[in-house]
Amino acid sequence: MLDDAVPAGNRTPFLLECLADLRDSLRARGGDLVVRHGDVVAETMRLAREVGADAVFAAADVSSLARRRQRRLDGERIAFRLFPGVTVVPPDLLRPSGGGDHYRVFTPYWRAWSAAPRRAVLPPPEVISLPSGIRVGRIPAGPSCTGFPGGETAARRRMEAWLRDGLDDYAEGHDDLAGDRTSRLSPYLRFGCLSPLELASRGNPDFVRQLCWRDFHHQVAFAFPELNRRDYRPGRREWRDDKDALQAWMAGMTGVPIVDAGMRQLAAEGWMHNRARMITASYLVKHLRIDWRSGADHFFDLLLDGDVANNYGNWQWVAGTGNDTRPNRTFNPIRQAKRHDPDGEYVHRHVPELADVPGKLVHEPWLLGGEVGGYPPPLTPL
Ligand SMILES: Cc1cc2nc3c(=O)[nH]c(=O)nc-3n(C[C@H](O)[C@H](O)[C@H](O)COP(=O)(O)OP(=O)(O)OC[C@H]3O[C@@H](n4cnc5c(N)ncnc54)[C@H](O)[C@@H]3O)c2cc1C
Q1: Alpha-helical regions (H) of the chain
Q2: What's the domain range around 105?
Q3: pTM here?
Q4: Can you tell me which atom of ligand 1 is nearest the CA of 278?
Q5: Could you read off the pLDDT of 314-363 as tens digits, one per residue?
Q6: Does 361 fall in a domain?
Q7: Which of 62, 248, 329, 344 has the fewest CB atoms found within 10 Å of its own CB?
Q8: 56 pairs with which residues across the strands?
Q9: Residue 12 near ligand 1, beta carbon < 6 Å
């Protein structure tokens, strides 16, 4: 169902490719994907009446928008059932022994999550039948995605290649910015092209721990639906209103090469390496002291994997308003850059003005004295 809340920017072409691939898979099994455009609840009910359905089934989701939709469907005159699927462990299953409706800290959640019962990973049905006479509708045409072809077929191909060639090296390589040695499966998990349950059953502990972070943020968002607007841990934080600095950060023109490289990767690919997400987010909130909401909204607009729980949960974690047990931690961008991009390859790839600066100096071009290739000076002393 395509409604008024179709995802922003980069995610729309990706979603359309996912739907086309889903339609092909359903057709190969004798079914089809029925596409309607409009208000999700009204269109679902119209279709249910058309085919004389007894019930509507959906996968339970956690964002406030999804839950509003679920509540509305639940109020309709039809049986409505929700099933788990978005996360490995349902977001309302685990409760801390000390009380409370969700886990606020990751490590005890990871322990409980690891011991929690798992649903079975089931194969898809071999045959699907569709009531006759339904207008199946057209999937709107859109520009094609770059870098990430949408859909389950591409997702499974990437997953198999990753499990075969990338997984063993994950613990050692996941912070290597230039090496790009993470799975890049996040957009597929975001759009339900891959089952996180299946992936968790096939990964090693270091990788599965990251999937647990994904579940962790989902259970926080489930318990605290205002995660994308309000401080999860309220405190006295004073944010600066500096539109020029925010603009420079968004454009990848802060003058701090590692920050600019990350922001430009985001603009070019609709994706950013996790380490770069932490560095760029921390620079905005801890160095420029700009409200996390401005940065998170910008990420959310551009990320192919952008989702409320993970994006805003991670932003609040970095800002110190969320679930970090060390809310005052600050990432020094230069130290981070030297550790995770020691030869400057990631910066060279994304900041062409610095192409001629040797790798050892690329993270601190100001040490050369004077201007380098039109590249700006840093916005704040580091
Ligand atoms: C400021 C900030 C914003 C972020 N916004 C998002 C977002 O909108 N959507 C999103 O999926 N992830 C988000 N992340 C988490 C993480 O950066 C991405 O999931 C990861 O970079 C995706 O790349 P990958 O698939 O190669 O990850 P891998 O390292 O291969 O990890 C496998 C999977 O584990 C999950 N995962 C890994 N790290 C995290 C994490 N820190 N939190 C939650 N799940 C995680 C993802 O689903 C990922 O696909 C954000 C992190 C930060 C610091």
Answers
A1: 11-28, 40-51, 64-74, 106-115, 152-165, 170-173, 186-190, 196-202, 205-223, 243-251, 257-269, 274-282, 292-302, 308-319, 333-340, 345-350
A2: 86-120+152-223
A3: 0.96
A4: 53
A5: 999 999 999 988 988 889 999 999 999 999 999 999 999 999 999 999 99
A6: yes
A7: 329
A8: 80
A9: no
